[in-house]
């Protein structure tokens, strides 16, 4: 497999270079050596990054910790999220901090890219706390570009399943400053009460008491830092990746509903374009359901206007012969009914039957069973002549009765 051209040093920018150009230059200086090191160490065919990366951001008190597991479940992810604060708390990172040095963008990106190559993240992962700076934003764009390049390069090869079209989504849980501060201070009170109880009883483990959770000014400052740094970093990617701003100010149930609405499956986003092109002519269930009630009303009115006699006969069969059986199965909510009524031989009759039950709130399915019944025996030849008997088997389901016990 051909090697990528060796990265060349970017041309010097003129003194009039914009801050954006400088950020791109700094990001390239950081990203290229790290990528080259990964390729040299693992081999290009083993640079298998997650199919989906969800960049999770949230205002202080927005409930990232509370909602991360639900977001993962909604997207079908089973692996633990990558939390940058924990990732940067490794012995190697501690040595850098103990030496009096800052953990810079280079160290952050290097440790992150190696972590993303773990097999447990192949189908997707939530990434909490990245990017936080403009340079990290540019590095993320470069990573997405390389992942896309690998997907195209290995398409049509035996390794294609390991290099799927990458999907990057940004999820921001948002609360306003007032709500954020209130939640931070409330959390501080709850943690303090819990820790006091742990100290009194000696049972349990102490939780971290953040200084910002006990000082309103510091809580406000933490919120503003989020708006000026993390928020801006993620917002700058809005026109590049799929962006979801989720209102997190309601109850847990309301927030979960908002998450589901924002992150529900989107085949055009997640499928390979060739796969999507093959399937797109099939209607979505959601599209069918949206107009199902209106279409049912049109059909029923059409039966009354265009086939009143047959419609009346079907209604009579349902009322006189079927409903007594349905009522006798009210507890189970499930009735199987066989009928040989000649009305169902009429072309629109079975459609009418199903629609009548649907309009009344039942779910009905009809199956036709054809049975040969001996009708005549020729004593001279021994030949048996059969007639065809049609049995219409209707399965009717509905919500059964709830029996009170105790």
Verbal overview:
This protein is α/β, with parallel strands linked by helices and about 400 residues long. The protein folds into two domains: about 20-175 and about 215-280, Rossmann fold, CATH 3.40.50.300; about 290-395, Translation Initiation Factor IF3 (2-Layer Sandwich). The protein is built from 15 helices and eight strands. It has helices spanning about 20-40, 65-75, 85, 90-100, 105-115, 135-155, 175-200, 215-235, 250-265, 265-270, 275-280, 285-290, 290-305, 310-330, 350-360, and strands at about 50-60, 80-85, 125-130, 165-175, 240-245, 335-340, 365-375, 385-395. A five-stranded parallel β-sheet has the order 2-3-1-4-5, with helices on both faces. The chain has a three-stranded antiparallel β-sheet with strand order 6-8-7. Helix 1 crosses helix 5, helix 1 crosses helix 6 (about 135-155) and helix 2 (about 65-75) crosses helix 9. The chain is elongated, with a radius of gyration of 32 Å. The protein starts with 18 loop residues before the first helix and ends in a 9-residue tail after the last strand.
Q: Give the count of helical stretches.
A: 15
* Mean pLDDT, all residues: 86
Beta-strand residue percentage: 15-25%
Give the SSE string.
HEHEHHHEHEHHEHHHHHHEHEE
Largest sheet: 5 strands, parallel
Looking at the structure, what is the overall shape? elongated
Number of domains as seen in the coordinates: 2
State the helical fraction.
Answer: 40-55%
How would you name the CATH homologous superfamily of the largest domain?
A: P-loop containing nucleotide triphosphate hydrolases
Q: Let me know the number of strands.
A: 8
Instruction: Report the top-level CATH class of the largest domain.
Output: Alpha Beta
What is the straight-line distance between the termini?
73 Å
Q: Per CATH, what is the topology of the largest domain?
A: Rossmann fold
């Amino acid at each position: 497999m051909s090697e990528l051209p060796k990265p060349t040093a970017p041309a010097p920018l003129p003194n009039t270079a914009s801050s954006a150009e400088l950020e791109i230059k700094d990001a390239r200086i950081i990203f290229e050596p790290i990528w080259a090191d990964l390729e040299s160490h693992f081999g290009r065919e083993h640079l298998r990054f997650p199919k989906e990366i969800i960049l999770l951001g949230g205002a202080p008190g927005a409930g990232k910790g509370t909602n991360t597991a639900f977001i993962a479940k909604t997207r079908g992810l089973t692996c633990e999220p990558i939390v940058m604060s924990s990732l940067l708390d490794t012995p190697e990172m501690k040595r850098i901090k103990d030496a009096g040095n800052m953990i810079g963008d280079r160290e952050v990106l290097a440790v992150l890219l190696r972590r993303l190559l773990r097999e447990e993240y192949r189908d997707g992962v939530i990434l909490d706390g990245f990017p936080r700076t403009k340079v990290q934003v540019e590095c993320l764009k470069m990573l997405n570009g390389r992942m896309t390049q690998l997907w195209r390069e290995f398409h049509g090869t035996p390794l294609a399943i390991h290099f799927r079209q990458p999907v990057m989504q940004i999820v921001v849980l948002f609360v306003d400053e007032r709500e954020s501060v209130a939640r931070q201070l409330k959390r501080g009170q709850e943690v303090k009460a819990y820790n006091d109880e742990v100290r009194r009883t000696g049972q349990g483990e102490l939780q971290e008491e953040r200084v910002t959770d006990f000082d309103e000014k510091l809580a406000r400052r933490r919120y503003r830092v989020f708006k000026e740094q993390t928020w801006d970093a993620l917002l700058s990617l809005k026109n590049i990746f799929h962006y979801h701003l989720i209102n997190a100010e309601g109850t847990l149930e309301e927030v979960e509903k908002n998450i589901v609405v924002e992150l529900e499956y989107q085949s055009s986003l997640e499928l390979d374009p060739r796969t999507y092109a093959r399937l797109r002519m099939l209607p979505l269930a959601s599209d069918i359901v949206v107009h199902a009630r209106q279409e049912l009303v049109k059909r029923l009115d059409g039966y009354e206007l265009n086939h009143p006699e047959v419609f009346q006969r079907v209604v009579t069969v349902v009322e006189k012969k079927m409903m007594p059986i349905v009522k006798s199965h009210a507890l189970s909510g499930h009735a199987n009914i066989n009928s040989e009524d000649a009305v169902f031989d009429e072309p629109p009759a079975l459609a009418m039957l199903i629609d009548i039950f649907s309009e009344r709130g039942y779910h009905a399915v009809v199956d036709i069973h054809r049975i040969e019944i001996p009708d005549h025996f020729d004593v001279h030849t021994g030949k048996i002549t059969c007639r065809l008997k049609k049995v219409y088997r209707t399965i009717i389901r509905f919500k059964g009765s709830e029996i009170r016990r105790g």
